[in-house]
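Protocol step 6 of 9: fold each sequence in the batch and record its structure tokens directly after the sequence line. For illustration, a two-sequence batch is reproduced in full.

Sequence one:
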Amino acid sequence: MMIKNIQVRTLLFFIFFLVLVAESNAQTACPKPLFVDPTYNGSSDPEIIWNDYEQEWWIFYTGRRPAVKDGIFAGCALGVATSKDWIHWKFKGYCKIDGIGGLPDSPDTYWAPGIIKKGDTYHMFVTFKKGSPGLWGGSPTLIYHLTAPSNDLLNGWTTQGGLDTYPDGIDAGLFAKKDTFYLYHRDLDHKVENSGRSIKYMTSTNLKNWEYKGWAKGDINNEAVNGHNYQEAPYVFYWKNYYWLLTDPSGKGISVYRSDDCINWSFKGNILDVPGRQKTDANNGHHPSIAVVNNRAFIFYFVEPDAPMREQHRKENVFVAKDYYCYLQIAELEFRNGKLYCDRDKKVVPPKNLKPNGRYWGHNVH
């Protein structure tokens, strides 16, 4: 009997050990979804940065409002999620700008923050619409330049002015190459949209005075090459000895362009264009941001898994908030034969040391 009891206890201990190991292994992988806005389930347009002062990663995102039928994309505040390990994410709050805000419903409309650091100051270039009337907010659409000190990236943002992005600019993507800053953005000039031309860029040496360069060069605005007559959310990063520019062509995943000089771009196909198996990842990826850590590249994006139901519900004259829910996700990029690949269903185990080193403080400085 004693031997039998010992065997039972040994078996139970072994089972308990296996459960602990399984839980430990599960905890090493990033969750799916990575993060969801706690107020409206509208987290979109992620921008991940390394917060030097807090020594942790922050994701700034557009806080869409799916529960507000006539203001889903208007009156949006900028939400923040934080993490030290990419596994456990905390909702930090909503940004205050010029001392105003901090709530999920904003008197003005903010979208798609693009952020870069210079010295001890963080610079945000964000899509802005004065007021929040209607589904999409007021007009015109501007790109505003905001700054905040390193020790207050939630409430310390102040407006420095707007950029001249005639006629309407949205979705600023920032990148620093040596002493030159690049800002790529989408132009809302509908007169030329059907020609496939939508991405422009400008350069600066101080983030204040910008030289307008016009249409992005190479394949980006060439519909005959990339098949797109619509693109937004340009994002630039450096990895594997190349400059990469990602765009969101809406409904086709993420388009990838490669360059040797950050100016002339060649089309290298699409990623995240096949829905994932996980429920909250089961649609095309949208509006990406990248973090390169220890020579590994990770893509942060958002997904609207229930978006395909919108058209049916419109025909039925029924509004369903869930059709507009957005979820933040993460996947790891792979580099093979000069192109980028991404298996969004593969578990992402983050590097043990997530702190950036050297000048490469986050993801968009080279």
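Sequence two, same batch, same settings:
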Amino acid sequence: MTTVAWFHPFSGIAGDMALASLLDAGADRHAVLAALGALPAPEGITVEAVQRCGIGATRVIVPDEPDHHHRPYASVRALLDAAELPERVRQRAAAVFERLAIVEGKIHGVEPDDVEFHEVGSLDAIVDVVGTCAALEDLGIDEVRSAPVAVGTGTVRGSHGILPNPAPAVVALLAMAGAPSHGVDVPMELTTPTGAALLAALASGFGPMPAMTVHAVGYGAGTRDLDGRPNVVQVVIGTAAPAVPLASPGQPVRLLEVNVDDTTGEVLAHTVNALLAAGAHDAWVTPIVMKKGRPAFTVSVLADPVLAPELAARLCAETGSLGVRGRTIERWPRAREEGVVDVDGMLVRIKIGAGRVKVEHDDAVAAARRLDLPLREVMARAEAAADRTR
């Protein structure tokens, strides 16, 4: 039986929130703290019960590291290698910091091994990552999945000064994982680089809660109490349901559609991309003929019911339509895994399903341009690299 942890970052996710949610869901506090004892963790880590907009949640408080100095990625990796941790805890934590090093290296134009971690190299960030991986181990989690990730607006302050929100590292991490995300009108950092790295490295897929028998639910609280929005991340723990035949009830989704006859192809292409970026399962355009023989298009969106109102508003805003129609249908998505392969130094995202590997087209195009190779060759190399990892 596969035990699954499904994170729902509807108000974003940070490292301390992920750890707190798993403790709230039943991870043994003493076992997690014992694992953290293998690190040079600061003393005085506290766990407390709090309320966020009426939701009871757990908050983890890690004391600030005095006189914190930036840590190179190599130092963090050595620290994890030297710590007496369960092997899966070490592997998961190492994967999180490897993702961080890759994106930070790309942002700053250096090799991953030469990356100097700033905020994510502090002891509290290391505690958040290792603690989360230890809590997953204590709960016996075999697979991590996540819903679309919420991000805030405005700017945030980092070690390099004022940065756009979401921060460049957050955007790069979510893009690397192929994680759907959407902005909410909250002028604060809802998703941090540590939170994004945990999902990017550990989540095998993104979307609605998978079919499972639920055993527990937990809520991990952020520091601030937001007006009208619980500043928590939800995690649902359960046993994956066995595959069911197509005749059984499927996953409910909303099909939203508009007809437009005064919009250019460029605008329609942008609309499809905007809808997918906002968390749609799928979006497409179909040519039609309207009354009086007018050529037109139907823009269709497949949406999680929770995101349907937001995507309907986005659909109208992008196309200029004065209304939208919709209906609830069912779908039966097949199991797939998401990952990243290396093609001559270029990272290319892939999806692996039963008997099939699908290469992310945009990544393959970017790699083909950078490597001066035919697109077909890049895709073949990516598929071969994926086959070697299966």
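Proceed to step 7 once all outputs are recorded. Observation for sequence two: The radius of gyration is 22 Å.
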